[in-house]
Amino acid sequence: MFKQFDETSAPEASKPFLANTKSSFGMIPNLEKTMAGEPTLLSVYSFAWDKFSETPLNPIEQQVVYQTVNFENECNYCVPWHTVLSKKVKMPEEVNSALREGIKLPDEKLEALSTFARLLIHNRGKITQGQMDAFMSHGYQEKHALSVILGIAIKTMSNFTNSIAQTPLDKEVEPFRWEKPTLGI
Question: Residue 89 and residue 64: Cα distance in Å, rounded?
Fold first, then answer.
């Protein structure tokens, strides 16, 4: 497990980002405490996190992208956090559960979004015109596709950090502890 920092022990360059996180969340999650060890990572992650909320994806769609990436990257730390964040944006419980279980979403448009994100991840950004057309046929546009890339980048930073650092789950999300289910067996 990597060292975790707080507002007093963090490198100076990380302190403003930890303060901002505490202001937003009412506490500093262990992820940010870990990222604080490399201020540049924490600053880029924090900036990108804030900017993702300005994309044309609505808050529920943003959480669909985040949870799809969390699931595919098997992030036992991020899935519980985004379960809570999905509830805060009033995501339907059946969608939230389907994302945690890795099964088809009950909403066709959100399923198209999740599928698109998954295809980008698995194919390293290389998708067919047919796959792009399928995504666009649900009312999405090029700007939405580009926004999905931003969401994937944000979650890649956090998922990989949690993987190598073995970030311990925060008590605030302990009731939503998660392990990737075995599918198709």
Answer: 11
Predicted TM-score (pTM) of this structure = 0.94
Closest to 20 (Cα-Cα) out of 56, 70, 10, 58: 10
Displacement of CA 47 from its chain's centroid (Å): 14
**Greatest CA separation found in the chain?**
52
The answer to whether 67 and 82 have CB atoms below 8 angstroms apart is yes
* Tens digits of residue pLDDT in 31-44: 999 999 999 999 99
pLDDT tens column, 7-27:
999 999 999 999 999 999 999
CA R_g for the chain: 16
Question: End-to-end CA distance of the chain, in Å?
Answer: 32
Q: Tokens standing for 62?
A: 């943003």
Measured distance CA(123)–CA(149) in Å, rounded: 13
